[in-house]
Amino acid sequence: MDIKIMMWILKLGNSESSTNGDGEMLIDVPHDLLIIGPSESLLQLIQFVYPDMVSHLTDPTFYQERAILAPALESVEKVNQYILSCIKGEEKEYLSCDSACKSDEDNDVEAAWLTPEFLHEVKCSGIPNHKLVLKKGVPVMLLRNLDQSSGLCNGTRLLIEDLCPNVIGATGTNCGKKKFTLVE
Hints:
Helix content is 22%, strand content 15%. By secondary structure, it is α+β, with helices and mostly antiparallel strands.
């Protein structure tokens, strides 16, 4: 990484930019980090962060030091859908549970509001989406500590290798051998 970019990131991390007192900060982004123009800007971003991505699909180290940070969940979904469309192969869809927990009936929440259609549309940080679409060779990042002693912790990057009806197999560089996760 360029030393100029590293110094800029450190300056941001140390809060050395001016704030307005409300916790907001004005950030000057170096011109060489900007993607100018709306046409094909997502493609440009992905090509910048993951150059020649398709030829590195089987190399877990390729994704170790690369990530796209997005300001909103909608942006994350656009990036994920675009990257998924770039990778050849058959998609496998995994869906979440379709019912509300019976223990919630004692709360002040109106149970009639918790329809499957409503639950499927809930998208917020900390709650997985109702539908997860994957392909073999797709990079993923764990968002929970599953098994820290085996290297499966928050932020671990893995490559999807197997997509079974109730199991997803993936490999990463810091967790060694292939790991399987039960999908319920």
